[in-house]
Amino acid sequence: MPPRAVPFEVPPLLGLLPDAAVAKYLSRGMQSGQENPPQVALRKASTLLPEEETRWHTASIRELLERAMTRFDDNRTAADGWLAPRLHATLRMTRAEAGDGKLWNHLAMLVAPDYVVWRHKGTEIAPSSRFSGPHYTQCFSRLWWAAELFRDGPDYRPVEVACSIQDILNTTLRLDVIDHRPTAQALLAVFKGLISSGVPRPGDHINALSSAVNTAGSTLVYDVLAPDNQPLVEDLHDWIADAATAPAVHWDRLPEGPDDGRVSRTAIDTLVPLFEKLLAEAPIRRRGSMSRAEDGGDPAQEPAVPTQREGVSLAKDLPTWMT
Fold it and tell me: Residues near 223 by Cβ (< 8 Å), separated by ≥ 6?
């Protein structure tokens, strides 16, 4: 099938676009897909990333997004699980780099505004937070961070589980405790059990457990109960440097992420029984009809998420290994 025609000029490089520029130029016409982005004004407001670094070139990202739109046009929420690991493996960077919202603004406003509309347009428009918003809401940032936080070293299979139910992306991804890799993997183990058991409306149980784990995490220190292995920083940076020669990601099999250390199985096994107990005791808040998040809508309309401390360390000082 031929690639979709792009009705605007895609810049060859990613850049940094300030929030103020998004607020100024994002129109309802863009949000509905009826207007193209004001390219000249947005490019003037942007700072391009270094051309000599292949990872900032947009051609491979654009090809990936066009493939997703073609492949999942009949089931757009399913695109998340396919795209998240492939976007992460294509757009290789550190957590510090990924924590800069200006990069995601540029991707959404100049490189792929059509994808934002395709994936998140409700009855009328795609919410502005999908173009520029928190890491757990912005169209592309939430997928990159889902892959980063839920991968097990080079293994992206847990990411597919994380993206299989929208409540995990809309609720669990916001939790501060997801910084702790054994916590993330233990939660996924419990979630996977819920999904395979055929429990009705697993999203209700996922939200309840996410709330309980976050609340308990204010008094229980998970990294003391289940210590994590120190990530292999040099291996991560080697993987990022290999972006210049890495082949394009495969459409039909998962790529390999950075081989920077797997999560301790012992640590996961320590937390799973605790989380199962928390789930058994957690009140389940049931929703009377399909949530807007499950239907591709605006997570701002979802039940309130428990108060977080900061979430994914984006507003905190990053440890050296994350930079």
Answer: 180, 182
